[in-house]
Every structure is written in structure tokens, then in C-alpha cells.
Specification:
Layout lengths: L1 E19 L2 E15 L4 E6 L10 H10 L3 E3 H4 L7 H11 L14 E5 L4 H11 L4 E5 L5 H14 L5 E5 L6 H16 L6 E6 L7 H10 L4 E3 L6 H9 L5 E4 L1 H4 L2 H11 L2 E4 L6 H14 L6 E4 L8 H10 L1
Parallel strand pairs: 5-6, 5-12, 6-7, 7-8, 8-9, 9-10, 10-11
Antiparallel strand pairs: 1-2, 1-4, 2-3
């Protein structure tokens, strides 16, 4: 199949800076793709890289788009190198674009992202009223003593039947990871009427995989890998090294959707699909993958709308330009 190809870079400012162990993030940049096949059918895709998370840079993605001809083929799309995982996702999503037969999951199926620090104590209630019942809170950003104190307040404030995920973005030391896991196990052991701590996400840096494997076997509180499995190559490597815990998959940067499907069907891994702060274009493709491949009824990490202005008008003008 041949396609007429157009692309357009974009920038979206966060309503408030997103603060993680990786630093502050103020502007989401990416590329919207537009393919028209020989029958006139239009497909939309999006390249939304996060270079510090393991994908290509925006400039590398732009360079790739700029060197392509105005007409491309399936062969070009399926031969995008693994060094460009966000490009793989964007082009394959555009090539298989479909919006029929898909209903948006209910809010209760989403995990809402809480900001780091004390701000979380003031924001969860608004998100609760919007229907969220699973929350993710960033840790490893401030001093651990301060975060444990806020955590104590948070678990006594959240309704008991909610779920809470703690996301360290690889920012804890081995000793701090042990302390967090011990604290969460102790909460469960005491039988306190508190939210369920579903898992701690990426407690240690990527290069400390073996330590995370050991920790996962030493505590009852589950560990989920995130940065360690940012791309398909990393995901496969961690599986081969024995990881059978939770895999957080960010479709926007993991790589080829067709190869991801094959891997998930073959190995039946425990997945949590998660956002890369993409627009509705990539989000639709990501949610379709999540609906197809999710197991164990885990909430998907796409509760991030409160970080941006409504995108309808902005996105419509971007589409019109293409």
C-alpha cells in the first residue's frame, strides 16, 4: 500500500510543571502524522518521544520525517529502525488507524496521576469526584522523611477502597526502596483500613535490575518496572532475565504495535498501560492496544487530562493545517 505523507510538529504547555525524579517538564512536544492511502482513506498518527525515558529525541524523529518522500509505503513503515521506537508507534498507528467499534473506558478504569509532594493531598478529592478510584503518586522527588510523612497523611485521607500506586521513576536508593516496601508491607500487615498499595513503580535505576528482582521476592508489596521496560527490546530483555512481575508499558514509546501484540500474546505478561502525555490521536491508538492486551483488570495510566487545557479546539486547528 502507498500513502501520501504529511507531518506537523506541535507544542503543548502543561498547566503546571510535571515534577519527577527526572526533573521538571513544562512543554510536551511531538509530531502529528497524516497518511492518505490510495482509496482516499486518512490515517492519523503521533510521535511523542521522551528521550530521557529511553526513546529517540524529538530532533531525531523530525530528521526521520524530513528525509522521507511525500509518498511512503508499508515497507518503509515496517522497516523503521528500533532506535526510533516512538516513530515506529506513530507510523504504524497511522497505518492501521481506526475509530470504529471502540468505546472509551470508564473513568474508573483509569489511574489518575497525582503531583509530587503535599499538593497531592489537595488534588485527589477533585479527581475522586470525576470518578477515579486508582491514583498514582510521584515519590523520590523530595527527602524521604518528608514524603513518608505526606504518605501517612495521604493514606489516612483517601477512601479505604481506593488503590494507590507509588512511582519513584528510578529515584530511590536501595535503602530507601527497602524502607518504602517495608512501610507498605507493614500497612498491610497491621490490617489498617487504608487504600490498597497496588505497587511501587520503578524504585531503582534501570541499571539496578537485579536488585529490583531481589526486592520483588523479598516483600509482599509488588514492584512494577517502568523505565526498565521503556522499549520492546528492554521489555524482552527483562523478561528473559526472569522478571515475572508487573510491566508498565507506554505504547507511545515502546515501539512497534504489531510486535508488542506478538510479545504480549506469546508471554501473557502482567501489564499496566500508561500515557506519555500524548494528544488524543496517540491516546486512541494506545487505548485500543490496552483494551486488547491488558490482563488482571488493572487500571490504565491515562488519567492525565487535568495536566492540560482542553485540547479539542487546539487539535482541530492542527488537523486543519494538515
Amino acid at each position: 500500500m502507498r500513502y501520501q505523507f504529511k507531518f506537523r510538529p506541535y507544542q503543548r504547555r502543561f498547566l503546571r510543571s510535571l515534577t519527577t525524579n527526572h526533573g521538571k517538564w513544562d512543554i510536551r512536544e511531538g509530531i502529528i502524522l497524516h497518511l492518505t492511502d490510495e482509496s482516499g482513506k486518512v490515517g492519523w498518527g503521533e510521535i511523542a518521544p521522551i528521550s530521557w525515558f529511553g526513546s529517540e529525541t524529538l530532533e531525531q524523529a523530525l530528521d526521520f520525517c524530513r528525509q522521507l518522500p511525500g509518498e511512503i509505503t508499508d515497507e518503509i513503515i515496517f522497516s523503521i529502525p528500533d532506535e526510533l521506537p516512538a516513530c515506529q508507534f506513530g507510523f504504524e498507528s497511522a497505518q492501521e488507524w481506526r475509530i470504529e467499534f471502540f468505546s472509551m473506558p470508564h473513568t474508573q478504569s483509569f489511574s489518575a496521576l497525582l503531583p509530587a509532594g503535599e499538593v497531592a493531598l489537595n488534588q485527589w478529592e477533585t479527581l475522586w469526584q470525576q470518578g477515579y478510584r486508582t491514583f498514582k503518586w510521584k515519590i523520590g522527588v523530595y527527602a524521604i522523611a518528608d514524603e513518608l510523612e505526606i504518605f501517612e497523611s495521604l493514606i489516612h485521607t483517601l477512601p479505604a477502597f481506593t488503590k494507590l500506586r507509588l512511582d519513584a521513576n528510578g529515584g530511590l536508593s536501595y535503602e530507601e526502596a527497602n524502607l518504602w516496601l517495608w512501610t507498605c508491607d507493614n500497612l498491610k500487615a497491621n490490617g489498617e483500613l487504608a487504600p490498597e498499595i497496588e505497587f511501587i513503580e520503578q524504585p531503582l535505576p534501570v541499571e539496578q535490575f537485579q536488585q529490583m528482582l531481589e526486592l520483588s521476592m523479598s516483600y509482599e508489596t509488588a514492584i512494577a518496572l517502568d523505565e526498565s521496560v521503556a522499549t520492546l527490546g528492554q521489555l524482552a530483555a527483562c523478561y528473559q532475565q526472569g522478571w515475572r512481575g508487573i510491566f508498565v508499558i507506554k505504547p507511545g514509546i515502546v515501539g512497534s504495535p504489531s510486535r508488542l501484540r506478538k510479545f504480549c500474546h506469546q508471554h501473557q505478561i502482567d501489564t499496566v498501560f500508561s500515557s506519555v502525555f500524548e494528544t488524543a490521536i496517540a491516546r486512541l491508538a494506545a487505548l485500543q492496544l490496552a483494551a486488547e492486551l491488558s490482563r488482571n483488570n488493572r487500571a490504565i495510566g491515562f488519567g492525565i487530562d487535568h495536566f492540560f487545557e482542553q485540547e479539542d479546539t487546539w487539535l482541530q486547528s492542527l488537523w486543519n493545517d494538515l
